[in-house]
Write a structure and sequence with these properties.
27% strand; four-stranded antiparallel sheet; alpha+beta; globular; disordered N terminus; 150 residues
Length: 150
Amino acid sequence: MRKTAAAFAALGLAVLGVSATATTAHAGPTCDAKWPGSRDGMVRAWQLDDCSGIYLGGTGSYDSDWGNSSGPFQGSDENRASSVMNSGYTGSYDIVAFYRLPGYGGGYTCLKSGEKYADKISDNTFTNGDPVDNRISSHRWVNSCNHILT
């Protein structure tokens, strides 16, 4: 009986340890510092984890092709994002959907306004199974989404 109780106690501690690690794993001190302080209607992207490296851009609008020569994201911005931020206004269409291909094609994944940012997207996939890191080619604001960045 004591062995069973000890096993359950060890399992409980292991679960708590995993939970504590998971809670702190996504803390982004640089993203925290770059948060605008209040919602300003923007989506932003950076080349490296934790909202660092080259600032690829930001906009309050849509962009169907991050690799073309028009729109808020251009040229080499396509397939370079490793962290993203959603400081969009809350309400309708406050979720940013990121797409694998230009023209909102391929798979997608989303960042809800309540999440504020995803400081490391390398552990996420699009709905088609492709990794998200360095693979975003377009984005738009949507009203709902069932595949969320973590």
